Amino acid sequence: MSDGNKPIVVGEYYESHAEKQAFLRQVFDDTAKNYEAIAKWGWFGSGDWYRREALRRNGVTSEMRVLDVATGTGQVARALMTILDDPKQIECVEPSAGMIAEAKKRVPVTFHQSTAEKLPVENQSFDFLTMGFALRHVDSLDDSFTEYHRVLKDGGKVLIMDVTVPEKAIPKALFRLYFKHILPTVAMVLTRDRNVFRLMRYYWESMDQMVPIENVLDSLRKAGFTTVEHNSLLGCFSEYVARR
Q1: 37-51, 61-75, 215-229: lowest mean pLDDT where?
Q2: Residue 132 Cα to chain centre, angstroms
Q3: Is there a contact between 138 and 115 (Cβ–Cβ < 8 Å)?
Q4: Cβ distance 7 to 16 under 8 Å?
Q5: What is the Cα–Cα distance from 106 to 99, expressed in whole angstroms?
Q6: 146, 119 in Cβ contact below 8 A?
Q7: What are phi and psi of 135, to 5 degrees?
Q8: pLDDT-derived band of residue 4, with 50, 70 and 90 as boundaries?
Q9: Global confidence as pTM
Q10: Can you give the pLDDT at residue 140?
Q11: 152 three-state secondary structure
């Protein structure tokens, strides 16, 4: 994830904005068919419950129109479908064509192939905007959050769910062991796909280089959001919440 507008170089994967987005689209296209299973058992099956609970707790209600950014295989969109009256109230933005193809098998909503920095939707057209576990994939926090502010109605709310590497030594060491070594290895053994191994290793490296929490909050404020806050759950989940 970038600090403002400056990209962070992650390992051998990329060295520029253009290279980063090309890498991400390719690796997600290559792993899309296996991604759903990896995400499910990678978090021990807790992801669906957590997403539903987080959406309800942060104010999603049945009549809202919601934009889901970086939708992946549609996990947040599926959680939204359990709350909203109609799937037509959801629109999804995702840069990977492979991920969109998989998501279409699971959620009957409108999809847009694009990045967070260029949302192909109208001004002030959504009541709520979500982003699940993808903040580190954006090129620019400032540009993305400016777009988030643009597409939300007055009083609209943004909820960004993500991962936070624990600060204390022992939890951090266990977190690192699992995400850097155990998860990539197990994922490759189960899928027999080296692209999956590469994606899981990239996940750890990008998590390990996450922009500090206060930088994210500052960028949200800079974009014009108010009542900006960060909540931490279980020492490893982050929720950024802000209102237009």
Answers
A1: 37-51
A2: 3
A3: yes
A4: yes
A5: 11
A6: no
A7: -60, -35
A8: very low
A9: 0.92
A10: 93
A11: strand
